[in-house]
Amino acid sequence: MKHIPRKRFGQNFLTDDVVLHDIIRSISPEPDDAMVEIGPGLAAMTALLMDTVRHLHVVELDRDLVERLNKRFDKARLTVHSADALKFDFTSIPVPQGQKLRVVGNLPYNISSPLLFHLAAIAPQVKDQHFMLQKEVVERMVAEPGGKAYGRLSVMLQWRYHMELVFVVPPEAFDPPPKVDSAIVRMIPLAQPLPCDEALLEQVVTKAFSQRRKVIRNCVAGLFTEDELRQAGVDPQARPETVPVEQFVALAHLLGERQA
Fold first, then answer.
1. How does pLDDT run across 35-46, given as a tens digit for each residue?
2. Domain 198-259, what fold?
3. What is the pLDDT of residue 110?
4. Is 39 annotated among the ligand-binding residues?
5. Is 70 part of any known ligand binding site?
6. Which of 85, 91, 135, 155 is most buried, by the most CB atoms less than 10 A from its CB?
7. Residue 14 annotated as lining a ligand binding site
8. Is 84 annotated in some ligand binding site?
């Protein structure tokens, strides 16, 4: 029985074999990898991963698809977690000593940003992440200071990860085709991210990008003085999209010192 993609789950199933094999090559799975796939859907990528990985974990919200997965694959090789990825505890997946978790998936575009932040909390336990996302989101994730795409998502993720846009995927590679281009992003947690309180960094970055057209002095008025901006190496006349990650971290430190 054919599965009807459900809009409320953001289901767009990848069906292009060439793209699927390109993704697998980008991931480069190894037999003993501790790997979890988010949103396996109709198992197009799942099956290819299982050609190499001895045991795979998947997290799927759609109960109909969970049932299909359990019927199709040997439970000794595939563990299906019937759960919402936004609420799932990824640290519950067993990882052999000396290894870290590898995370892959064609993420539903309607929850991509909150899911990325959910996963960021376990970055120290992760080796790498490979995701299919809306191309515009990936461009924001990897954007460098000075461009229009650089913003809150760029800063908060680049503080924790090295990221690269691997390749672009056209709409016709999916069923049903989305209305936008997609892209594969590779995310590798930084071995030593700049020490910083995440909540304070989030507060600073959110405030800074609340009014993108204004200079940062006006954006963070009431939070920092001009002297404090200069102390953190920030030009008060600069626009938020030109301020690099390390300067936002410096501002978060200043905020933390004040609250101590």
1. 999 999 889 999
2. Helicase, Ruva Protein; domain 3 (1.10.8)
3. 83
4. yes
5. no
6. 155
7. yes
8. yes
| 218 C-beta neighbours (distance < 10 Å), count | 11
Helix/strand/coil percent split, the chain, to 5: 40, 20, 40
CA 182 to mean position of chain CA atoms: 14
Q: What is the pLDDT of residues 162-210, one digit of tens each?
A: 999 999 999 999 988 888 999 999 999 999 999 999 999 999 999 999 9
Q: Which two tokens stand for residue 244?
A: 């690099």
Listed by start position, the domains of the chain span 7-189, 198-259
Is omega for the bond preceding 176 within 30 degrees of 0, making it cis?
Answer: yes
218: annotated binding-site residue?
A: no
Query: Could you tell me what percent of the chain has a pLDDT over 90?
Result: 87
For residue 240, the 8-state DSSP code is G
Distance CA 9, CA 111 (A): 9
- Residue 238 tokens read as 């600069």
Which two tokens mark 102?
A: 């590898």
Q: Answer whether CATH 3.40.50.150 is correct for domain 7-189.
A: yes
Is 241 known to sit in a ligand binding site? no
Q: Cα torsion at 135, 181, 25, 88 (round to 10°)?
A: 60
